[in-house]
Design a protein that fits this description.
The protein is α+β, with helices and mostly antiparallel strands. It contains twelve helices and ten strands. It has helices at residues 2-17, 21-32, 37-43, 50-89, 102-105, 110-124, 138-141, 178-187, 227-242, 295-300, 317-325, 338-344; strands spanning 128-129, 135-136, 172-173, 192-201, 212-222, 249-256, 259-270, 277-278, 283-293, 309-316.
Length: 360
């Protein structure tokens, strides 16, 4: 019995000292396996007298039960300790703030925002939006807009030409959105009221020019259009876009092949501070070009200039975005700098409306 008590003390001590389930399994095999220390004691029963077996048998079986219970308890303790350690490694701090949702983190580019703003303003005046291809023919980009072949005005545009075709003709990247006006007049019968926003391309690059930029042009064709109507349309747009109660415009004679008469339009502003303020001050700033549609353009588009007349205007979207939102370098618009877009960009749900303010 003394041997059994000593064996019990030894095995239970081993069980209590193991650090993982693999070591615990090794103790179990060493004690209860076929050649384990407890199993070897059981083999002794066969050589004992009946009286010895009566006392030794219950003792050795009791030892097996104690070892089994100790093994089970230690196994549960090891599992719990392992779980606690795993939870420590995989802890999630639920007090951390949630990651911002796409609607809060994402930003609308100022160019896209300004296109939405001017579309909302002109839509309120009854204008539809017309679009056309970025890759144009010489006819639509120049000839149909009263640029004769060899005319010096063609040199004003620094055009990107494609390689000549077999017949000698060359496609090009449109230098303005005016070809959309011609295509619209070919497709629709007057009266016509459209704006034509889109990308344009010219071979120039500096602080205020990029090889690709954006323009919006407007076109009105009917029987009663006048310079006075044009002035009203531009004045209402500028007041709504710059969100000022009034603007003062100055029309200066200019030259565009596709309009006659043609004008450059300046608006009164104040440049005395760090920001340009419109509707006040003693300075003037050129903002757009405009004029009455040239009769030759109407003829090229299949419209009788003796029956219909109209006016058109155009301005740089990038330029008016810079003026309104205080940006001083056009090249930053296309740098894909996340810091810049976070600063100047607009939240996706800030949809421009006239009643809520076009700038959101």
């Amino acid at each position: 019995m003394t041997d059994i008590a000593a064996l019990e003390t030894e095995i239970l001590a081993q069980i209590a000292g193991v650090a993982d389930e693999a070591a615990l399994e090794a103790v179990r095999v060493a004690a209860l396996g076929k050649k384990g220390s407890v199993s070897e004691q059981l083999k002794l029963l066969g050589g004992m007298s009946p009286e010895e077996r009566k006392s030794f048998g219950p003792a050795i079986n009791g030892l097996k039960d104690k070892i089994g219970e100790a093994l089970g308890a230690r196994r549960e303790a090891l599992k719990e300790a392992a779980l606690i350690e795993r939870l420590k490694r995989e802890t999630v701090d639920v007090t951390l703030p949630l990651r911002a949702s796409p609607t809060n983190e994402g930003r609308i580019h100022p160019i896209a925002q300004v296109v939405d703003e001017l579309t909302a303003i002109y839509a309120d005046m009854g204008f539809a939006v017309a679009e056309g291809p970025d890759i144009e023919t010489d006819y639509y980009n120049f000839t149909a807009l009263n640029f004769p072949v060899g005319h010096p005005a063609r040199e004003m545009h620094d055009t990107f030409f494609f390689s000549p075709k077999q017949d000698g003709s060359r496609l090009l990247l449109r230098t303005h959105t005016s070809p959309v006006q011609v295509r619209t007049m070919e497709a629709l019968k007057p009266p016509i009221r459209v704006i034509c926003p889109g990308r344009t391309y010219r071979c120039v690059s500096d602080q205020t020019h990029t090889p690709m930029f954006h323009q919006v042009e407007g076109l009105v064709i009917d029987k009663t259009s006048t310079i006075g109507t044009l002035k009203w349309v531009l004045e209402e747009f500028l007041k709504a876009f710059f969100e000022v109660p009034q603007v003062e415009m100055r029309f200066r004679p200019s030259f565009f092949p596709f309009t006659e008469p043609s004008y450059e339009v300046d608006i009164r502003c104040d440049r005395s501070g760090s920001e340009i303020k419109f509707g006040e001050g003693n300075d003037w700033l050129e903002i757009l070009g405009c004029g009455m549609v040239h009769p030759n353009v109407l003829k090229f588009s299949g419209i009788d200039p003796n029956e219909y007349q109209g006016f058109a205007w155009g301005m740089g979207i990038d330029r008016i975005a810079m003026l309104k939102y205080g940006m001083n370098d056009l090249r930053a618009f296309f740098d894909a700098d996340a810091r810049w877009i976070r600063h100047y960009g607009f939240r996706p749900l800030d949809v421009p409306t006239l009643f809520g303010g076009v700038s959101g």
